């Protein structure tokens, strides 16, 4: 829920600042880019901080090799994507890349939701995870289509 609230509140605050005359935030897609960036900083940092890192490693599907390395790589990609969202020349490309990354990582969420004893931080139902993912993907699409 904290990730969802970061996206929503970050976007709303950014748009409010835009309405006060800050050109950098003069549209919803630009404000949503800031909300997404805040969200991906939060989730990217979580890839490196226990106990969340340990929990993320635990939900990597067993068919994938080197779970710790995958968590590290995805964390770096999330942080790089967040930076890309904030730099106007790379904003659209970053949104598209993060959209692809979210789709690639979603199977770990499905796996976590189906685990008999998922890590404490990964206990939400698959329906909730899917609905949140749809919001995150929609935000990335909005930025990709209108964020230039």
Automatic annotation (TrEMBL):
Its main location: membrane. Coiled coil: none annotated. The keyword Transmembrane applies. Keywords: Membrane, Transmembrane, Transmembrane helix. It comes from the Bacteria. InterPro entries: DoxX. The chain crosses the membrane at residues 30-52, 64-86, 92-112. It is found in: Membrane. It holds the Pfam family DoxX_2. It is a multi-pass membrane protein. The keyword Isomerase does not apply. This is DoxX family protein. It comes from [Mycobacterium] fortunisiensis. The lineage of its organism: Bacteria, Bacillati, Actinomycetota, Actinomycetes, Mycobacteriales.
């Amino acid at each position: 829920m904290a990730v969802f609230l970061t996206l929503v509140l970050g976007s709303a605050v950014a748009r409010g600042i835009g309405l006060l005359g800050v050109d950098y935030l003069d549209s919803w897609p630009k404000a949503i880019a800031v909300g997404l960036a805040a969200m991906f900083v939060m989730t990217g940092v979580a890839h490196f901080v226990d106990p969340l890192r340990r929990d993320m490693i635990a939900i990597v599907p067993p068919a994938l090799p080197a779970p710790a390395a995958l968590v590290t790589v995805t964390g770096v990609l999330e942080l790089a994507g967040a930076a890309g969202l904030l730099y106007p020349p790379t904003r659209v490309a970053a949104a598209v890349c993060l959209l692809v990354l979210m789709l690639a990582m979603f199977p770990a969420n499905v796996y976590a939701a189906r685990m008999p004893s998922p890590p404490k931080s990964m206990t939400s139902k698959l329906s909730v995870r899917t609905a949140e993912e749809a919001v995150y993907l929609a935000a990335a699409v909005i930025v990709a289509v209108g964020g230039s």
